[in-house]
């Protein structure tokens, strides 16, 4: 499946979810997270390819089953700044626990061998959420991102993250 097909499907999904949001129960949220990130780097690079990742995010949960979110993530090892737009389908398992899966698209700016490049990224995520109370929730998730970084004999094939985050709904 090519990237344009995936991007088109995400845009259509976002527009259709947005059209239903006018009559929907919408909970806005902000949050932050921390985790572990590993990049699959090929070529002439001698530095590290894994490190902690720090994330800031915000978005909306629509009718308790649809989440649209913007995320900024930073990884120090590659001076990597990632900006993502995501959609997740949330499935409640119990009153407090839910599982989710979804897709993300965006851009990552990485610096390798003192060369910086901003490239398209896309992928998916899955995880579980715990509703602490009516305002707070915690999440444990895995995200896979395909990357198009290829510069000066170095290529980043993909990024994998395991992260934990806390969100506040208002």
How would you sum up this structure, described in words?
By secondary structure, this protein is mainly β. The chain has one domain: Beta Barrel (Porin), CATH 2.40.160. The protein has one helix and nine strands, in the order αβββββββββ. It has one helix spanning 3-21, and strands at residues 26-43, 50-62, 66-75, 80-92, 97-112, 115-131, 136-147, 150-151, 154-169. An eight-stranded antiparallel β-barrel has the order 1-2-3-4-5-6-7-9. Strand 3 and strand 4 form a beta hairpin. The chain is elongated, with a radius of gyration of 17 Å. The N and C termini lie far apart (38 Å). The model has no long low-confidence stretch (mean pLDDT 89). It comes from Agarivorans albus MKT 106. InterPro entries: Beta-barrel_OMP, OMP/PagP_B-barrel. Residues 8-170 form the Outer membrane protein beta-barrel domain. Pfam families: OMP_b-brl. Keywords: Signal.
Helices and strands, with pairings:
Elements: H1 3-21, E1 26-43, E2 50-62, E3 66-75, E4 80-92, E5 97-112, E6 115-131, E7 136-147, E8 150-151, E9 154-169
Antiparallel strand pairs: 1-2, 1-9, 2-3, 3-4, 4-5, 5-6, 6-7, 7-9, 8-9
Domain Outer membrane protein beta-barrel: 8-170
Organism: Agarivorans albus MKT 106
Signal peptide: 1-21
The quaternary organization reads as: single chain
Strand content: over 45%
Terminal CA distance: 38 Å
Specify the overall morphology: elongated
Tally the structural domains: 1
How many helical elements? 1
Give me the CATH architecture, please: Beta Barrel
CATH topology: Porin
The CATH first-level class comes to Mainly Beta
Overall radius of gyration: 17 Å
Q: Low-confidence segments, ≥5 residues, pLDDT <50? A: none
The main β sheet shows up as: 8 strands, antiparallel, barrel
Number of strands: 9
Helix-strand sequence: HEEEEEEEEE
Widest sheet: strand order?
1-2-3-4-5-6-7-9
Content-based structural category: mainly beta
């Amino acid at each position: 499946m090519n990237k344009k097909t995936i991007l088109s499907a995400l845009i259509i999904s976002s527009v259709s979810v947005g059209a239903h949001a006018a009559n929907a129960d919408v909970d806005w949220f902000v949050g932050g997270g921390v985790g572990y990130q590993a990049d699959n780097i090929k070529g002439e690079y001698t530095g590290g390819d894994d490190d902690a990742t720090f994330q800031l995010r915000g978005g909306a949960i629509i009718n308790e089953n649809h989440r649209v979110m913007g995320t900024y993530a930073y990884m120090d090892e590659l001076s990597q700044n990632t900006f993502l737009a995501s959609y997740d389908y949330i499935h409640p398992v119990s009153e407090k626990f839910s599982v989710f899966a979804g897709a993300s698209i965006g851009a990552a700016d990485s610096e390798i061998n003192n060369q910086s490049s901003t490239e398209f990224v896309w992928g998916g995520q899955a995880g579980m959420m715990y509703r602490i109370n009516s305002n707070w929730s915690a999440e444990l998730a895995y995200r896979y991102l395909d990357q198009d970084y290829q510069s000066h004999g170095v290529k980043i094939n993909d990024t994998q993250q395991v992260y934990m985050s806390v969100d506040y709904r208002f």
